[in-house]
Write a structure and sequence with these properties.
The protein is α+β, with helices and mostly antiparallel strands. Helix content is 49%, strand content 29%. Helix 3 runs antiparallel to helix 4. It is elongated.
Length: 171
Amino acid sequence: MADEAGNNELESSGKGKQLLLSIVVGVVSAAVISALFIFLAYRYMIKYLPQNAVASSSTAETQSGQEKNDRLERYDQYLRVTANPAGSKGRRFVVVQLSVEFDSKSKKIRKELMSKSSKLQDMLNLILSNKTPDELAGDKREELRKEILDAFNENLTGHLTNIYFTEFIIQ
């Protein structure tokens, strides 16, 4: 009888250890899977979603007789396009990354920039691919900036105040 009681005690303590080990393994597995999911979701957002464009506020000074401060908001790294310039027969390419700036009071433009990002990216691609490498040269960048800004503003109900080339590579 004493042997049976001792065996039951050993069996129940063995089951307890096994249960505790199962719980610990389950909790650690859940933590690892959660961390992996968060990491992959973050990488996806950084890489593919335009609303990841870093929204920053800046105070810009305009000169019209006197300097006045206007509150502007900027989406850094808003669009990035790689295109083949006209006449290059695919042997050359241009990489352009843009930041856009707009009046921070306009709530409509924020939503519109996100909803029309694919259309604006396509427009940027068409503008760049219709330019020759000479037309993309450094001395013509201001004309290109104005052309892109005007094209974007024609397709937005809100108004962009400026665009910035945060990356401009011609190969």
